[in-house]
Amino acid sequence: MSDAVHIERAGPIALVAIQNPPVNAASHAVREGLWNAVETLDADSDVKVIAVYGSGRTFIAGADIREFGKPPQEPMLGRVCSKMETLGKPIIAVCHGNALGGGLETALGCHARVAIDGLTVGFPEVTLGILPGAGGTQRAPRLTGIKAALDLITTGKRVNAQTALELGLVDRVTTGDPRDVALAAAQEVLYGTLKTRAVRDIDVEPDDAAIDAAAKALAAKQPLLFSPHKCVEAVAASTMPIDDGLARERELFGECMESPQRAGLIHAFFSERAVTKIPEAGATPRKIEKIGVIGGGTMGSGIATAALLAGLSVRLNEQSSEALSRGVATIEKNLEGAVKRGKLAEDKRRAVLDVNFHASTELSDFADVDLVIEAVFEDLDVKKTIFKSLDGIVKDGAILASNTSYLDINALAAGTSRPADVMGLHFFSPAHIMRLLEVVVADKTAPEVVATGFALGKKLGKVAVRAGVCDGFIGNRILSHYRKVADYLVLDGATPQEVDAALEGFGFAMGPFAVSDLAGLDIGWATRKRQAAFRSNQERYVSIGDRICEGGNFGRKTGKGYYVYGGDKPVPNPDVEGFIAAERAEKGITAKTFTADEIVDRYMTAMIAEAARVLDDGIALRPIDIDAVFLFGYGFPRFRGGPLHYADTLGAAELKRRIEAYAREDSYFWQVPSLIAQMAEDGTTFASRN
Ligand code: CAA
Which domains are delineated in the chain? Predict the structure, then answer.
């Protein structure tokens, strides 16, 4: 029939299997195969009932996302679903694994749905910048009511088989092999014990209050996003006659498809998977069951928490028993938080600590661990000493990793007898929540050690990105550069709150000054002091942050930074205005005004410029790795796809033009990276380097 869709006959029953590994995405071949199968079986009068199921690990995980952005090929899934729904004989869906997006819509086009335990259903389209475009916005409200359908469609949340049953999306939940269940369910249709009906024949109960509430909530919470609002409009159309509603859904779907947010969100989806494609992918990871964490501060405790949540056995080390107790207390608090967020069952919380956790002030307790992650404060000499001691303690084959944010992993490796077993594992705070993990590969790191870093990242639920050694690796190196622009903008005329507001308007959850306050101003201060020794005297230096710190104010944790905390919401710190005025006066700067667009343009251009250098230096493998770092570690707006995806929407020629224009004010900071100059000349994009 077709490679992607296979028909099997059993008397009056026809079983239709979707076979498009790995996730049975509803590609053109699947849609065409289904269309032809339905047509063939419709014409065959011996066939009395049809059951559709998925071969392999899942039903249908949705449309084939790789086809988005390309010219659409008929038959579109919406037409396939309508063809099934209006078929003159019963057709049912048997779903296991995932019935997501177009997969769930295919099931809704059938006359009954049987779920196999373990099934996950949902409409993730909104997370990809689109809406269910194959009838989902019209058929789901007919089964669940408008309110529940809005909740599913505007959030993209995924629910299990039991919840799907309660919501009315499926008719029963059972267990078994998909083909066997399909055969048995089809027989029940023949016997009349499994009822069938077309969803289009069900009336929708109008619910204007739910529509209004959803529209208002989204306008307040997600004003920058496009597709969630279109989802509400589409569901609102479900009270129309179904064919009119389907036509309206199609129109709105088309608008979403055209939106640049769709391209950004889909790029973000693929970035999470692209980063796993590394040169070391073929190497066999070492077994990691027991890990040691050195340092019970915020980072060390966060890393230990992440490992405990993933079921690993963890040893925590601190120098003094006081520091150790503080670390243990932080881990306990983190685990309580995990229980509240539904990540850990309450009855498991105590067991995790009693069975899998051991705290000690003796490094010798690390003799049998498989991997150690050092997370002490940022001092190369201290870290070198620790690595040297560990080298003499841990067993052969144990991996030594540093959670340093900036420091030289090669230098740490050189002080040990096992440089091939040393790498950086750079977590982001809070380490048990933030998804990014930079796996920093030093000159001598062995391929299987890199592969182990990625395997560990997967186990911890992180997005691991391969990075090379340099000051700050991928993320912090780029951050150190573009963060200066925020300071320059303030020195030249903007206020910190104007800069923050402009970047929040671009889509960052928080502006750079609010972020600095949250992270602790002392961290940036320490970095600036460390960098002072090798800072060029041509570089503009802004000391407003130093002034704030000198007064003992380090941001949120001390109640005061760029903002003052404690009231209903943070307010600008009045002292900062004075520091700015004094520094402008001292440097003879006359304040200019900057529009929000100008602020965003300078900030983003600096980010892209340094990202281009990181790429050119081979610190990141591909542009998409840099995008993933910013999406998963730096709160970059997902709908913009990442800094280099965004860069392509501007084009290299425009970036070069901007940098040259800014360079008239500061030719040291603003230099056209050679990669951007080359791309401007040959008209290429970052995407072509993925
Ligand atoms: N289209 C194309 N490729 C897909 C895909 C899809 N819908 N879903 C997954 N894949 C690919 C992945 O990119 C990955 O490819 P590589 O191995 O080459 O990297 C491979 O399938 C396996 O995917 P995962 O690594 O994610 O596997 P997993 O087992 O961890 O998760 C999953 C499986 C839960 C199905 C997950 O892949 C997922 O959530 N997929 C997206 C589902 C989705 O968003 N569907 C809606 C599509 S939009 C739609 O359907 C619109 C419409 O109305 C017509």
Answer: 5-258 (3.90.226.10), 290-469 (3.40.50.720), 476-689 (1.10.1040.50)
